[in-house]
Amino acid sequence: MRITNVVLLGTALLAAPTLAQTVPAKNNAALKTAHTVDDGGARNGANSFTQAQAREHIAKSGFTNVSGLTKDKSGVWHGSARKGAHTVHVALDFKGNVSTAK
C-alpha cells in the first residue's frame, strides 16, 4: 500500500511542471518594442511606464522633441512631439501603443 502512495506522489510531482506550462500567459504585459498606432485611440489601463520611459518609448516610435508628458487618471500618457515638420499630440497606453490625435 505504501509503495502505491509513493508511486502516485512521484507521478504527481513529475506531472506538475508539465501542467504549469499549459497555463496561458496573461496578455496584458507592456510591449518592449516601440510602435505607432495612428488611430488616435490609446487604451485605458494600469500604466507602469515612468515619465522617462514614456518619453523614450515615444521617441523610439519616430517622434522628436517629446514634451509636456502627463499621465491621466486612465493610465494614458499624453504630450506633444514632432513628427517631421509637424507638432502633434501623442499618447502612450499601457501596452506601449503610441497614438496621435487626428
TrEMBL record:
User: Which superkingdom?
Assistant: Bacteria
Q: Which residues form the signal peptide?
A: 1-20
Which keywords annotate this record? Signal
Name of the molecule in the record = PepSY domain-containing protein
